Amino acid sequence: MTDFEQLMAYQRETSALAQVAGRLGWDQETVMPRGAAGQRSEEMAAMESVLHERRSSARVGDLLETAQAPDAAGEAQLRDIRRAFERANKVPADLAKQIARVTSQAQGLWAQARADEDVAAFLPVLEQVVALKRQEGAALANGGDVYDAMLDDYEPGMTAVEISALFDAMRPRLVALRAAVLAQSSPRGVTGHFDEQAQMQLARRVAKVFGYDMSRGRVDKAVHPFSSGSGSDVRITTRTNGHDPFNCLYSTIHEVGHATYEQNIAPDYALTPLGQGVSMGVHESQSRIYENQLGRSRAFTGWLFTEMKAAFGDFGVADADAFYAAVNRVAKGHIRTEADEVQYNLHIMLRYDLERALMAGDLQVTELEAAWNDRFAADFGYGVDKPSNGCLQDVHWSVGLFGYFPTYSLGNVYAGCLHEALRRAVPDLDTQLAAGDTSGATAWLAENVQCHGGLYAPRDLIERAYGHDVSEAPLLDYLEAKFNAIYEV
């Protein structure tokens, strides 16, 4: 084999091991017995130790010196392998292993503390996670900005300065739209009890409607919905609430957006650096456009209304127009994953500022709950009633995903750009969606975004599909047009 072929063979083995580690994480979130938590943390630490050793191996460095890429895709493979190699060699192996061990423990402690509404029970392990992630960030930054180094893990090339400027541009129009909408009468929501088994049956049907290949995936339940895996094994989770079927259905559509991205990447890239989504911002663009611009559209909700009536009978909504308004209802609430499109990004801005302060040392973990509650009251105009509606609601910090949150809003911005381009490319999109046919939209996204995997840099990928520079304007224009019409502002 050539040096390039040897490097790729080695990389495929490393990627296969990483997929096994990911499956351990999926198992921990779904079916692992509670008593296995301690052993699982050791298993995760052992896997991370092996992966870190492989990624930082001198053999990889030697092959990177001599390998010659056969084509543009090969150049991109070398780019990403080199990036991972340099990153792995900045982070001490013992630190990487300890982070894996502690975050595995913290995940279970967070879930229990959330269930018990007990912030104090979670703070000691969160302090350990924050301390370890600060060390990792400092090692990666090598004298630069620690938060930028962490953000780069999830959105390569992005900086906190750019994110802050984006949020500053978005906030005034979002706040003004929220004020205008909340000043109007709110549409009626759904009422009654919705059998949770029936919810899961409908969720699986909707997943298939959006192109999720169940022969290479599965839908399970978890505390916090997520997608896991790539290639031929991509699994998703959702959650159910007997009084709120939208939680299950739209969490499922959201995670299907992530999952189909992974399933639709070119098969030749499987188990290579290009065989996964290029960034979390691009990943989120897929989940958000599936969930919102497609799944919450007037056309698709008309079809879903009929499916809901078949599954649950009368649920207090008179017709398809009222159902569309109910699906897109803007209301007070604490939970980010249940937030409407108007307010969702305001939740992200809160978390972004808090985690930057945590990483900079300007905010201590012991101060987090009070800081969260104060900021939430200032941003949303009402208080946090319990920790599970406040600083315990998200899993991200327990598992060390600092730098991840801003990619949610970046994904919304990307989705706004892609939606504008999609409408140009598929002029009869609404007719298709009204029939429960998403294939026109999903095929366009597969061709223009998903199949490329990690071939292009994140912003380049979106701009190739959109045809213009990335901008927050399409998202904000879409939100204003949609919600001004629903609320007759």
Question: What distinguishing features does this structure have?
Answer:
carboxypeptidase; mainly alpha; 489 residues; 3% strand; Neurolysin, domain 3
Descriptive account of the structure:
The chain has 2 domains: 3-144, no CATH class; 160-486, Neurolysin, domain 3 (Orthogonal Bundle). The chain is globular. A 3-stranded mixed β-sheet has the order 1-3-2, sandwiched between helices. The termini are far apart. The longest helix has 28 residues, at 3-30. α8 (160-182) runs parallel beside α20, α9 (196-209) packs parallel to α10 (245-263) and α10 packs across α11. By secondary structure, it is an all-alpha fold. 65% of the residues lie in helices and 3% in strands.
Summarize the structure.
It contains 20 helices and 3 strands. The protein is mainly alpha-helical. A hairpin with a 2-residue loop joins strand 2 and strand 3.
List the helices and strands and how they pair.
Elements: H1 3-30, H2 37-55, H3 58-66, H4 72-90, H5 93-116, H6 119-141, H7 146-154, H8 160-182, H9 196-209, E1 219-221, E2 227-230, E3 233-238, H10 245-263, H11 280-294, H12 298-312, H13 320-327, H14 341-360, H15 368-380, H16 406-425, H17 429-434, H18 439-448, H19 458-466, H20 473-486
Parallel strand pairs: 1-3
Antiparallel strand pairs: 2-3
Helix pairs in contact: 1-2, 1-3, 2-5, 5-6, 6-7, 8-14, 8-20, 9-10, 10-11, 11-16, 12-13, 14-15, 14-16, 16-19, 16-20
From N to C, what is the helix and strand string?
HHHHHHHHHEEEHHHHHHHHHHH
Helix content: 55-70%
Examine the coordinates and then state which fold CATH places here, giving the name of the CATH topology of the largest domain: Neurolysin, domain 3
Silhouette: globular
Major β-sheet strand ordering = 1-3-2
β-strand number: 3
Structural class category: mainly alpha
Radius of gyration: 22 Å
Give unreliable regions as ranges: none
Q: Work out the count of structural domains.
A: 2
Strand content: under 5%
Q: CATH class of the largest domain, anyone? A: Mainly Alpha
| Multimeric organization | single chain
Number of helices: 20
Write down the overall mean pLDDT.
96
Straight-line N-to-C gap: 66 Å
